[in-house]
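Example (one chain per record):
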Amino acid sequence: MIRRVLLSWSSGKDSAWTLHVLRADPAVEVIGLLTTVNITYGRASMHATRLEILEAQARSVGLPLQTIPLPQPCSNEVYEEAMRRAIEDGIKIGATHIAFGDLLLEDIRNYRIRQLEGTGLAPLFPLWQEPTASLARRMVDAGLKAVVTCVDLKRLPCSFAGRMFDHSFLDDLPPGIDPCGENGEFHTCVLDGPMFSKPVRAMVGEVVERDSFCFADLVTEETPRREQAIDLF
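Predicted structure:
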């Protein structure tokens, strides 16, 4: 039986690589992307990826994008209600599973499993317990191109924000930092890779510190100048 899968899509490398892995499985049909979006700023949560870039990613991978609107601030109750609605919508279009790009964090994995209990959708974790050091290198070697869009300043200096996720970046990571940022050390936005039909054209705009994080804003040529201000996230 073919599993019809919705993919939790952050805009980053782990979700993009999950798509690559899923598409190599003949028993899987990926039918869409799910992304939580901060409706105040029109950006993906944490990664701060602009909606226009999310939409360009979806076009390049050839999948419909379903955005899950979240307010700011967002309580856990509001988040879970929004997810329930998204799950119901997924079932209506014939989804049987939701896939996540989680790697190592048991508490996050267990939370997702509990969230889907009794909904009619089952969770998939295609990358679960992959050794992150070798996985990160394999992503780069396969041609995945991503920009580091968010850095936790408690773990990395702001100078890492805006860099390409490449071998040089991995070589420069301090000891104790997960090469895939699995502990929240950094987040990325993918612009190209084996799962894309064509690159997403974007450039690094302003880089700012905000609430113990450093953000690198990705903009496109179509982004109006007035909307390139960093205070939009």
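Caption: The chain has two domains: 3-124, 132-232.
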